[in-house]
Amino acid sequence: MIRASELPTPLVWIEHWPEESREGQETFELVVFSSYEVVERAPYLGETRAWIGDATWKTLDRTAVELLVGGTV
């Protein structure tokens, strides 16, 4: 997905859970991955594989998310 969507690395992800899925409480989580690298898996076949490191989560409020994405969410 990262390569296909041409997303920048290191990848930063924001998970959003709407009120309906969290018993009436909307949540946002900033997910940061420790690393991103492309590793040659079978160089004789020209194959590579992308690896993403461990994730860490930090709870955010709507205002912080809107500042990060530069708009209303």
Q: What's the SSE blueprint?
A:
Layout: E1 12-17, E2 27-33, E3 36-42, E4 47-52, E5 55-60, H1 62-69
Antiparallel strand pairs: 1-2, 2-5, 3-4
Distance between the termini: 22 Å
Order of neighbouring strands in the sheet with most strands: 1-2-5
- Proportion of beta-strand residues: 35-45%
Instruction: Write down how many β-strands occur, each being a DSSP E stretch of 2 or more residues.
Output: 5
Q: In the residues, how many domains can be counted?
A: 1
Low-confidence stretches: none
Number of helices: 1
Give the biggest beta sheet. 3 strands, antiparallel
Give the integer mean of the pLDDT values.
83
Shape: elongated
Radius of gyration: 16 Å
Q: Can you give the helix content as a percent range?
A: 10-25%
Alpha-beta classification: mainly beta
Order of helices and strands: EEEEEH
